Amino acid sequence: MRVDKWLWAARFFKTRSQASDAVDGGHIEVNGERAKPSKQLKIGDELRIRQHNNTFVIHVRQFNERRGPASEAQEMYEETEASRAERTRLAEQRRLAPTPAYEEGGRPTKRDRRDMSRIKRRF
Q: I want to staple 35 with a disulfide (CB 3.0 to 4.6 A). Which of 30, 76, 81, 107 is the partner?
């Protein structure tokens, strides 16, 4: 089964074109190598999926030609324990991080907004 179709069926992406764009953008690795959307998956392959601030490391368990309910989609893969622990650690770290705030009082200037957006892009 194609990587982009599997990612769509496993509900990592809402549309197949979004899955294809993520593969083309280098956000998906199959067995440690950058993949193309047409790459054929096999059962047991390891996928590294980078979405927003999260990285999933999963193993393919089964295929499904159609996109079914979330309960069926979760049976298609198994996430590694290290990946799950790392995601929860990063979520906790983001939760405890201080919220960037404008300290001067009043409305931020254009320069202040640019500085704030520059800081946000780093994370």
A: 30
Provide the domain limits for residue 50: 3-79
For every residue of 36-79, DSSP letters joined together read -TTPBP-TT-EEEEEETTEEEEEEE----SS---HHHHHTTEEE
Q: Is 110 a domain residue?
A: no
User: Measuring CA to CA, which residue among 57, 26, 60, 58 is closest to residue 40?
Assistant: 60
Nearest to 65 by CA among 1, 3, 14, 12: 1
Neighbours of 117 (CB within 10 A): 9
Per-residue model confidence as pLDDT tens digits over 44-54: 999 999 998 88
Average pLDDT, stretch 74-90?
93
